[in-house]
Design brief:
Elements: H1 2-10, E1 17-23, H2 38-47, E2 52-57, H3 68-71, E3 75-77, E4 83-85, E5 93-94, E6 97-98, E7 103-109, E8 119-122, E9 128-131, H4 142-167
Antiparallel strand pairs: 1-7, 2-7, 3-4, 5-6, 8-9
């Protein structure tokens, strides 16, 4: 990854990429089956980050090529008589609610629009011109975005935990 980013930077270009997030130890029952689904809250948080163009959880788009019989996460009794699933195709969220499995998701970031090379454009009057950006610009936001993704995920889980706790009082 580092070598690719360095090559792209040397060329005056930019590159995007995907960050995979995993939330471990999330208790089952966070979220809601209707309004406030856990995956919708995570998606909203991730899509609010600058340069994000996509969000998926579980097997996401790849899972749509399977049949329901292949994709369903079957419930079973685990260790210490705790309900669990045999698989985790759903990425730890079923019906908008955490199921106790690891929650995993992917966030797609676009390449930075500001290139350190000349680009054709138009001026305010519609005349063709050349844009040459100056200054310091990252060729890839991914290294800086990892802690942002982690923090946004943590805030969503904490928010859902607090909502669950206050509605039980």
């Amino acid at each position: 990854m580092i070598r690719l980013i360095e090559e792209v930077k040397a060329d005056g270009d930019t590159i995007g990429g995907v960050i995979t997030g995993v939330i471990q130890g999330c208790p089952p029952g966070l979220g809601s089956p209707e309004f406030g689904k856990l995956h919708a809250q995570l998606g909203a948080a991730m899509l609010s980050i600058n340069a994000v163009k996509g969000f998926e959880y579980g097997e996401g788009f790849a899972g749509v090529t399977q049949r329901g019989s292949e994709q369903n996460d079957i419930f079973t009794m685990g260790r210490d008589s705790v309900v669990t699933t045999k698989t985790n195709h759903s990425g730890g969220i079923q019906g908008g609610i955490s199921n106790g499995q690891d929650i995993y998701f992917r966030v797609a970031f676009k390449p930075v629009a500001t290139l350190l090379r000349e680009q054709p454009t138009i001026d305010i009057d519609g005349n063709e011109t050349i844009l040459k950006a100056r200054g310091r610009h990252d060729p890839c936001v991914l290294p800086r975005a990892v802690p942002v993704v982690e923090t946004m995920a943590a805030m969503v889980i904490l928010d859902q935990f607090l909502l669950q706790k206050t509605t039980k009082m």
